[in-house]
Specification:
This protein is mainly β and 104 residues long. It has one domain: 3-layer Sandwich (Rieske Iron-sulfur Protein), CATH 2.102.10. Strands 1-10-9-4-3-2 form a six-stranded antiparallel β-sheet, with no helix packed on it. A hairpin with a 5-residue loop joins strand 7 and strand 8. The protein is globular and about 35 Å long. The two termini are 13 Å apart. Bound molecules: FE2/S2 (inorganic) cluster (FES). The site of FE2/S2 (inorganic) cluster has 10 residues, from loops.
Length: 104
């Protein structure tokens, strides 16, 4: 089995608490979130209609999709508000110094 690899997402001060961002990646974009100083990452693509979740709005512990306003629990990827019904992939996040990585 291949060793997990780290994919650089951003610097810790690139993203203020309550902000999300889309990170472009060849094998599928990743959304990174800062929830009160803790970083999370999910696939960027909404499972409902392919919109970017990194361009959505964080509401509490959920990311609200800007297309049809469905939402997902950021930590688990579980759908929380319709029309979203299919979970999204989440990634483990590792912070080393002031660099934030997704573990792939
Ligand atoms: S594309 Fe995200 S809720 Fe429809």
């Amino acid at each position: 089995m291949a060793e997990p690899s780290l994919f650089f997402l951003c610097k810790t001060d690139d993203l203020a608490p309550g902000e999300a961002r889309r990170i472009v990646r060849d094998d599928g974009d990743i959304a990174v979130y800062n929830l009160d100083g803790t970083f999370y990452a999910t696939e960027d693509r909404c499972s409902h209609g392919l919109s970017s979740l990194g361009e959505g709005e964080i509401v509490g512990d959920e990311i609200e999709c800007s297309m049809h306003f469905g939402s997902f629990h950021i930590a688990t990827g579980e759908p929380r508000q319709p029309p979203c019904s299919v979970p999204i992939r989440t990634y483990k996040v590792e912070v080393r110094g002031d660099d934030v990585f997704a573990v792939l």
